[in-house]
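Prompt: I keep going back and forth on a fold encoding question. Comparing notes only helps if you start from a blank page. Show me how you would write down a chain together with its backbone fold. Please set it down just below, with no commentary around it:
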Amino acid sequence: MTTPYGGVHKEKFRDSQFLVFMNRILAFFLAAVYIVVTRQPRHTAPLYKYSYCSFSNIMSSWCQYEALKYVSFPTQVLAKASKIIPVMLMGKIISKKSYQYFEYITAVMISAGMSLFLLSKQVDKSATGTVTTFSGFFILVGYMAFDSFTSNWQAELFDKHKMSSVQMMCGVNLFSCLFTAMSLWQQGSFLTSLLFATYHAQFMIDVILLSICSATGQMFIFYTISQFGAVTFVIIMTIRQGLAILLSCLIYGNVITAIGVIGIVIVFAAIFLRIYCSHRIRQRKLAENRKAVLTTSVA
């Protein structure tokens, strides 16, 4: 959207929603083709159930970008770093899941550590001038609620209907295409965007490359949710954000403050604690199963 296209009279493309539509429609077709040419499990989920997480995904994106206008930089950071806790709460509501005490502890530790690290890298000075308003806070809560619902609803569909990650990708993008196409048509920007793409071949090449990258990312996202659940997925995405900033500091020689280092230590301590406690619980369950088998065989 920042690249000018054309010959003598260059112009920039301004409609971000059309780019979302192109990403979704290419992902839908790629998933549909893969389903046709490969063997997939029998699909049992009603199609309309995909519309819920598709709509919540669109709304979470809208709330995220809209909240930037009314929310201060520290509030944005705290919201992004604390996504794990809302996802766990939403999991209890949607799937009636129960979590171990150490999962709550590590979720708070990761959120606190990421907040410290991200706040220590406050490089965008202009963003700090934004004051958090009540409407901004309300939109931010909406973003966290919709975002938490999306991954948990997808995890619930995976658990209940046992579809593949590609089937989930196809179903979600089908409704995303319908929703974004309806919005573009209502705004009257659908035809103008298509005309812009027709006149500028380089623009279409860039859009296709962007859509392929987006579709590839979706495949990993849906696979992660299907295999490891919504909480693990959001932990990976939260830590990824911090690792990207950390690598940027190491590559370009930016200074990491003492507060940032403390945040990193807290995050990695939480990860190791989570792995250790999970391993102990698995070992305990295996021991109990062996004991039950031995008791049965003796009897």
Notes: The chain has a mean pLDDT of 86. The longest strand covers residues 4-5.
